[in-house]
Specification:
This protein has 215 residues and is an all-beta fold. The chain has a single domain, classed as Lipopolysaccharide (LPS) transport protein A like domain (lipopolysaccharide transport protein A fold, Sandwich), CATH 2.60.450.10. Helix content is 0%, strand content 49%. It is built from no helices and 14 strands. The two termini are 29 Å apart.
Length: 215
């Protein structure tokens, strides 16, 4: 029978950070290592490129791929530093969410997330999901783990997630009622689904559309 651990943590102060190592749910596997050195390919309706500043702005149904990484949104700002590291900021269309997906090294597993804005740091090999953030780990086609919060930071080098339930932007006051929610499934349980008992939490959905409707 599928076993799930549900954490519903109410914040008693402005923000709460929790680091969740994937080893806690069985096994350590980092994100696809080769992705970091793969070229970045982008499709969009329009492009503005500044050669002097090494910046590019893509707008309109943007699709960015980098190895197994797939990022989609309404706008992607890309910058490359002097050492060749690439940095991207993805912005969603109003009422929708930007999307990120990446394969995990040596496994049939994927990390998939959505947020109002997504920042990719090629130097630190880190992804930030900002506002209305949701991150899922898929084993094959099955959602194994899911975390939601105001800010989620995924460190590809350590495979650690940091979830913040209350994030402010310039001009806003710190919130006091933010919440972090997580559902973590033991590694062996994901392959043996069972009927959901009455009153049990609904099964998590897998995102099949890119830049879906805001939740």
């Amino acid at each position: 029978m599928t076993s799930k651990i549900r954490a519903d943590m109410k914040l008693s102060y402005a923000s709460l950070l929790i680091a969740v190592a994937c080893a806690l749910s069985g096994g350590v596997a980092l994100a696809e290592r080769a992705d970091r050195n793969k070229p970045m390919n982008i499709e969009a309706d329009a492009l503005r490129y500044d050669d002097l500043k090494q910046t590019s702005i893509f707008t309109g149904r943007v699709v960015m791929t980098k190895g197994t990484i797939v990022i989609r949104g309404a706008r992607v700002d890309v910058r490359q530093d002097a050492e060749g590291y690439q940095f991207g900021t993805v912005t969603a269309e109003p009422g929708k969410l930007a999307y990120y997906r990446q394969k995990r090294e040596g496994l049939d597993e994927y990390i998939e997330g959505e947020a109002d804005s997504i920042e990719y740091d090629g130097r630190a090999d880190r992804v930030r999901f900002i506002r209305n953030a949701e991150l899922r780990r898929l084993r094959g086609a099955t959602v194994a783990d899911e975390m939601t919060g105001s800010l989620i930071v995924y460190d590809n080098t350590t495979d650690v997630f940091t979830v913040d339930g209350s994030v402010t932007t310039p001009g806003q006051q710190a919130g006091t009622g933010g919440r972090v929610r997580a559902i973590l499934t033991p590694r062996g349980a994901a392959s043996a689904p069972a009927a959901v008992a009455p009153g049990a939490p609904a099964q998590l959905r897998q995102s099949i559309t890119i830049g879906g409707e805001r939740k």
